[in-house]
Each structure stands twice: as structure tokens, then as C-alpha cells.
Protein 1
Amino acid sequence: MTNSRKRLPFLLLLLPFSFSLLVLFIAYCSAKALTIYSPNDEFDIPTTINHIPVTFELDTGATYVTIPKTLAQKLNLKPNGEMQTYLANNSPVTVQTVTIPEIDVGNCKLFLVQAQETSDDFAPLFGFSGISRLDIHLHDNEADLSCPDYEQ
Amino acid sequence: MTTRSRTAALLSLLALACCAETPAPAPALRAGSSFSATYAGDSFILPATINSVPETFIVDTGATFTSLPERDLKKLHLTANGGTALATIADGSFQEMTFLTIPELKIGNCTLYNVTAEASSQNMALFGLSGFDHLTMTVHGNQMSFNCDQQ
């Protein structure tokens, strides 16, 4: 009992330290949106748009987020213009532009993301218009996505 | 043990558990073993050298392999003498590609060895995921930087 009393001030000193660590951990967890892996030579990002799950491929080579036409209709996204873009093989293609009101990536909400509507032959790509709204740390076959301060 | 000390002990344990979940820090790096890609309006550009010849890459995590334009192979002193395979491009169509190995790819102060690549009919060289071994990429806004691990 006496020993316990002697230890008490020391343990009380530890309390603020432990609390600080807990706060730091909570901050870390809330800042980190999600971790994705690349088992098949691509990084797939699970998201939701209008409560519908959409999986994008992380693509730093794509200028915009792209959504295939049928999926865009399912997501109730309306085209608001058109533009010319180029495929990887340099062939030009005209695409519709859309603005996605909200993409949820883990606990991160990206509002008003510029995107391109493509033909259904294309996969959904998470291009630079979405990438620039996240912090990404990629190492080996793992990528951590988190929300920058200005997106929280 | 008092309630307070028990609480403190629990918090300490929790804090320790938290630390255990924190990702391990990146491996120690040599001075100057990092480089940045330049954002060029619609893509990230990486200046590199292969066999002392400059080559500019677009950073492309959507590409499984690093690729080089066929027309550049001669000036880079490379030959596409690997196997061939069919690759799917963004629009779902197929394109035949021939593999090659880049013995040394220098970017900034980092040297990547034996990078698997493909020769393509495209005009631009792509820095795809086959080049990402031993690299850590960080993207923040329109800034992209790389650290190279010790090899």
C-alpha cells in the first residue's frame, strides 16, 4: 500500500504524456484516409460517389479523374462540357467533362472534383484532378492516402 | 493500484499499441538521394539519363511497366530483345509490347539498376510501376518527390 502511494506521483506524471500520445494517435488515424496495396501491378482505390462504391485505378499519368459513361449515368453525373484529350498511344479522343460533387476516399471527402466521362472501354481512373487533392505516400506495394489539412 | 494509476497504465499501454501501428520510417537515405518530378500542367515529368543519354519520363502509376519509345532505343544504346506480350491500354484495346532491361537508370542522385521496361510506339517515355522498386514516392498537391533506398 505504501509502495503504491509512493508510485502514485510518478504514475500521475505519466498521465499527461500518455494522453498526448493518445491524442497524437487519434490525429494520425483521422488524417490517414486509407492504405491500398498493389497485388496486381496496379493500385486500386475504393471510394464511394453518391453512396455507390466505385473503384478507381491510381494513375499519375492521367490528367483527370475519368468515369466510364454508363457508370457516370448510374452515379447521376451530368456532363457539363467537352474537351479533347490524348490516349497513351497519342490518339486524340473527345470526351465529356463532368464535375463530381463528392468523392469519399476513406474518411476524406473530396468536393467538386473535375472529371472526364469516357467510353465504357475505359476503366475508372483516379488521375491528377483527384490525386492533387490527397497526400499520397507510395512505397513498395503499398500506398497511404491521407487528407491534406485544406481538405478536412 | 489506484484507479488513477490503473488509468495511466491503460493509457500508456494504449499509447504503446498505437506506436506499434505507426508505419516504420523510410530507410536511412544517403545525402542527396532524393529528387522531384516537375508538374508540367497535365503530368509529372522526370528528367533521367540512360547510358549517359538524357531521357524524359512521365510518371505513370497507371502503367505496370516503365516504357521507352522505340524510336529512342538506338540513341539510348538499348535493344528490345526481351520477350513480347500483349498489353491493355487505357481504352481497353491491346497493344503488343517487347520487353527490355534498362541496366542503369539515373534520376537525380539515384541510380536504379536492371529496370524492366517495354519498347512502345508512344512518343513519350513512361516511368511505370516497374521503376518504383527501391523508391518512395510522395505526392502533396502538385508536388511529387522521390527518395531512393540504399541498394
Protein 2
Amino acid sequence: MFNNEHDDGVDRRGFLRCMAWAGTGAFFMVEGGILKSYSLSALPKLPPGSAASLSFVQISDSHMGFSKAANPDVVGTLQTAVDRINALPTAPEFMLHTGDITHLSKPAEFDTLDQILKSARTKDVFFVPGEHDVLEDDGKYYLERYGRGTKGAGWYSFDKQGVHFIGLVNVLNLKAGGLGTLGPEQIAWLKDDVKRLKHSTPIVVFAHIPLWSVYPDWGWGTEDAAQALALLKPFGSVTVLNGHIHQTMQKIEGNVTFHTAASTAFPQPAPGAASSPGPMQVPADRLRRVLGITDVIYVRGKHALGIIDSPLAEQS
Amino acid sequence: MTSQTMRTTAVIGVLVALCAGIALAAQPKPAAEIKIDNFTFAPAEMKVPAGTTVVWTNRDDIPHTVVSTDKVFKSKVLDSDEKYSFTFTTAGTYPYFCSIHPKMIGKVIVE
């Protein structure tokens, strides 16, 4: 456990420690800007009154259709992810998929994912698209399949147990040399969407590309995220869940917790650790330790969301 | 040789010459190659004479596109080892990027 007094985030030592936890399965609780972490094995010893009022699970970057050396069996690893979800002690109320459902936006690839998710005991799934889901037609086919009730390119919000969820789209109309983009229309919608909320309402934002600058050199960030985050500044508890970078990472900035989930398909290198962000090949017996799912728990009155990353296979 | 056959020979001769002329004019300039490797267009900047066909080949494990910033040309999504070609007929500078990974940018200069 460690405390961090700075407003601007976790220090380097803390960050590395956080990363170490993330790889092995950890539980995070944020209270008043102080991050507390517990290993998964310590979960039963959590403070009394921690009974979750809402738990949900995030999966990401399933890349149905990918068949290269980094993982020739993305269907198998997605099935393992579903098995992990089915084995969670508390059945998640719903699932978030933070994009890159498919590798090449093909109907058959979307079909495969939908088919596998049918075996999850959690039936409700909320999607946002990744850039691989909107390749040929500016996302028209994606919208036909998953966009019912959404606005614009597929953004929307909903409420569960007092928590306000906002799904954003930052993978369309990308400009040469730029990063992910939300666009003025979506930002205007967001402004309107949060206007009616009390500032004590916990908010969960989910989108494919990170809404914080993880590594702009590789496009791991969103151009106009600052405008969106400024609208969320008055809120006491904001959790931002992203995918895209195929590894877990976490950062705290004031009342905002940023978190990226692992992929269910293949890992990518740590920022700057390779010449490009292409799929990273790891020994076959290690693959399932670098893929995973993210379980999120909201405890009413705690003003905090717990985030647990679990690899598909434990460290041996 | 009768005048009839002479005339026929002459006509054939003219036809052969015409065909050769057409073939010469239509012969394409050798194609220029740009490789997409490690999320990079290589070479990122290429100078070619007008009439050159440029061929892009995606050698990554991830799909990419080749999209002209000024909407002059646009490939479909190129999966691994797929190619896209475009023939540049007019002199000018043609910046382009990958619409999936917009940090990837390149430029073709046609002289």
C-alpha cells in the first residue's frame, strides 16, 4: 500500500509498483486522491462495508480474425476471458467492450465475437468501436450492429446503480499526423449530457484510445481529450477506462483515475520499448499471462471504484 | 512482285510501325516501391518522374491504409502483404498518411 500526496498523479516509484501489481492481478481503491492497492489474495480482508453495489467487467481488443504469430488463436483466448468472467466470485452486472472487436471489420469477425460472448453468464454488453471496427465505411456497419440508441458515430450514456456511464468514440476522422479525436459535435453532446448530473455522481467514461497521453509518438492519446475532461472536472469521482494499447496501465490525476485494460488477443510493447507498437511475440506459455480482463467494483458511499486486472493465466 | 502485293506489304509495314509506336508510348515507367514496415512508410519521402506508378506493400502484422491528405488517392485497407498502387501523372507534392494510424505519414513528390 502506498500513499501519494501529489495532485498531479502517481510518482515514478508508485507507478512502477502499480504496474507490477497490474500484471499479477490487483485491486485498487481511490479515496480522496489517495490510491490504495491490495493484491488479489488480500481481497477477502478488505475493510468491512465493502460489499459492492455494482460490479461490471471490461474486456478489450479481441481482434477477431487476427491469426499472426503473436497469437494464432484469438478465439481461444477470448473464450478463456469469458471463462474467467464466468468464474468471478460476483457475477458482473454487465460487460464493457472497449473496441477492436475485430481485426478487419468483417461481418464474420463480429459474428464470432457475438457468438463467444453468448457463453458469458453476463448478458448485457456495451460497446464502443476501435479503429479496427470502422475500417472501410466510416463505421456504418458497426453502427448498424451495435449503434442502436446511440448518437453521432456511436456515443451514448446510461445509468446503473447511481453511476453514470459515458461511451465515447475517438477512432473516426483521424487527421494526418494526429492522435485519436472526439470532435466538436461529440464534445458538445458530452457537455449537455453531464449538465443535469449532481457533482457527487460517480462517472465512468469508456473509449477505445486512451484519453490521456500515454505515448503520443505511437498515437497513444486523444487530441481533444482535455476539452472532454474539463467538462468532468467538477465531479468528485471520474474513472476513465480505455483499451487500444494492449497492456494495463493506470494513472491518477486529481479526482480522475485513468486505466487501460489488457487485450484478449495479443500484447503490445511498453511505450517506446520497441521500434513500433506492432503485436509483440512472447513465448507461447507466457501469452495468457499478458492477456486479461478487468473487473470494476463500485461500493456505494465509498466514492471510489475498485479496479482489478486479472491475467487469463496466473503466474506459475 | 505485283503492285497488289507491294501495296499489301507497305500497309503491313505501316501497321507494324504504328503498333511499335503505340507500344513505346504506352510502356509504363518502372514502378517505384514503398514498404510499410514497423508502422513506417519507407522511404517516407519519394521523388518520381510524372507517369510513375508507386506501389505500397504492407509488411506489418497490422492492417494499414494509404490515404492522400488532399483526397487525391485512397487505398482500401491493406492486410499483411497486400499492395496498393497509384500512377502519378501530374507534377506536384502528394502528402499521404495511414488513416488507421495517423502518426504514419509520407510524401510523394512528382517532377
